[in-house]
Each structure stands twice: as structure tokens, then as C-alpha cells.
Design a protein that fits this description.
Length: about 110
């Protein structure tokens, strides 16, 4: 399960296994072993993966099915733009545009 999540996040980010390995300073075979379920990343690498992909460690571990992104380091203007973008997508899906979003993004 962790391997599938890592693979999915890597592919969504457009990284090859080699690129992800370079960013984490591990070997490509380590990334391959994680994705294949032959081994699991250490706690430190799970934290690094969460930071790299802007998700929670719980998401990577399969403990939280909801995907979250971190707003840490963003300006108020950038956060406002993200909220507007989410409202736009909700409106296209017929969702509740204008609803508070603090529970979706942290």
C-alpha cells in the first residue's frame, strides 16, 4: 500500500524513479523496492516524501485517505489564490463553492 502511494505521488509529480531517488539521496533501486513492496522507507524518508509531495505522512502510510497540502511558507496572497482555485473547481463540479476551506488545507 505504501508503495502504491509513493508510485502514484511520484507519477503525479512527473518524476522518474531515478529523479525521486536523486531528490531523496537514495538509490533508484531503493525507490523501486519501496514501490514494489520489497522494502519500506524509513520514518525519515517518509517525512522527506511527505515534504516533497506536500502531503501528510499519514497519507503516505495509508492512515488518511484524504489528500492535504501544506500552506506553510506561502504568502496570504498565494493562499487566497489557492482558495479561489478550489472554489473554481468546486463550481465546475457543482460542489459547494464558497465554503470555508481551512479543513481541506493545512
Amino acid at each position: 500500500m505504501i508503495g502504491d502511494t509513493i508510485r502514484s505521488l511520484r507519477e503525479q509529480a512527473g518524476y522518474s524513479q531515478a529523479e525521486l531517488a536523486r531528490r531523496l539521496t537514495v538509490t533508484r533501486s531503493s525507490v523501486n523496492a519501496w514501490e514494489s513492496g520489497l522494502s519500506a522507507p524509513t520514518a525519515a524518508y517518509i517525512v522527506d516524501l511527505a515534504r516533497l509531495f506536500h502531503v501528510s505522512t499519514d497519507y503516505i502510510l495509508g492512515l488518511d485517505s484524504g489528500k492535504q497540502i501544506s500552506l506553510a511558507g506561502l504568502s496570504e496572497q498565494e493562499i487566497h489564490i489557492l482558495y479561489q482555485l478550489l472554489d473554481y473547481f468546486d463550481g465546475r463540479r457543482g460542489g459547494p463553492a464558497g465554503q470555508p476551506r481551512q479543513n481541506l488545507l493545512s
